[in-house]
Amino acid sequence: MKVSTIEKELNSLAYHGRGIVIGKSADGQKAVTAYFIMGRSVNSRNRVFVAEGDAMRTKAFDESKMVDPHLIIYYPVRVLGNKTIVTNGDQTDTIYELMDKQMTFEQALRTREFEDDKPNFTPRISGIIHRENGDMNFAMSILKSAEGDDSSCERFTYAYSNPLPGKAKFIHTYNGDGDPLPSFEGEPKTLELPAVDIDTLTDLIWKNLNEDNKVSLFVRYIDIATGDTETRIVNKNV
């Protein structure tokens, strides 16, 4: 298993698109998650993250510049009981609503596919953290077109039980820049999670995202035993 550092992985590409990180803190006490967005177009870059209770949503920074909100404005983060959902689109709501009706994470995502942004067909990436019996487990998913052909949707789910302290998984939408944008390939990557507080981790991730393309970052630490949370949000547009 190849294990990389956050710095090395984030600096490996100028354009990851959107990315989700989920893991367990080095001391084994916290579930850790991060979600970031990057943008190339004015529309994509014209966004900020806004906390809304225990959820988080995207919002236009300058409403007058918003062109097409349907893939831009959504809830990346929602909480359902002891489950925290993190995604790159409105499938957050799909997962929340269908899991509330006793469907599984994977079943909920079978009702969705990649985004309708031809020719990129941006993958839908999703993650869920589940706290139970004093521990955590999590899963990640990617829904992507088959070799850029929108007639076929490929669905991959990765489940992690008893995750190792000090390690995280990282999945993102694109394998770099291009036209069309190349989709992420393979399993989620394994990262070292340093033994640092939430402010230090937030700063580490933000500083290592490409300066031209980064837009917003969300980081949350969840106490596995109590469910108490610490959250940080950084927006390039302030």
What would your notes on this structure say?
The chain is mainly beta. It has one domain (3-235): Inosine monophosphate cyclohydrolase-like (Glutamine Phosphoribosylpyrophosphate, subunit 1, domain 1, 4-Layer Sandwich), CATH 3.60.20.20. Helix content is 14%, strand content 42%. The protein is built from five helices and 14 strands. The chain has helices spanning 6-10, 42-45, 91-99, 105-109, 198-208; strands at residues 3-4, 18-24, 30-38, 47-52, 55-60, 77-80, 83-87, 124-132, 135-146, 149-160, 167-172, 189-192, 214-223, 229-235. Strand 2 (18-24) and strand 3 form a beta hairpin.
**What coarse outline follows from CA principal-axis ratios?**
globular
Radius of gyration: 17 Å
CATH class descriptor name: Alpha Beta
The CATH superfamily appears as Inosine monophosphate cyclohydrolase-like
Q: How many β strands by DSSP?
A: 14
Major beta-sheet overview: 7 strands, mixed
CATH architecture: 4-Layer Sandwich
| Unreliably modeled segments | none
Distance between the termini: 39 Å
Return the domain count. 1
String of helices and strands: EHEEHEEEEHHEEEEEHEE
Q: What percent of the residues sit in helical stretches (DSSP H or I)?
A: 10-25%
> How many helical elements?
5
Q: What's the CATH topology label? A: Glutamine Phosphoribosylpyrophosphate, subunit 1, domain 1
Structural class: mainly beta
Strand content: 35-45%
Strand arrangement across the biggest beta sheet = 1-12-11-2-3-13-14
Mean pLDDT: 96
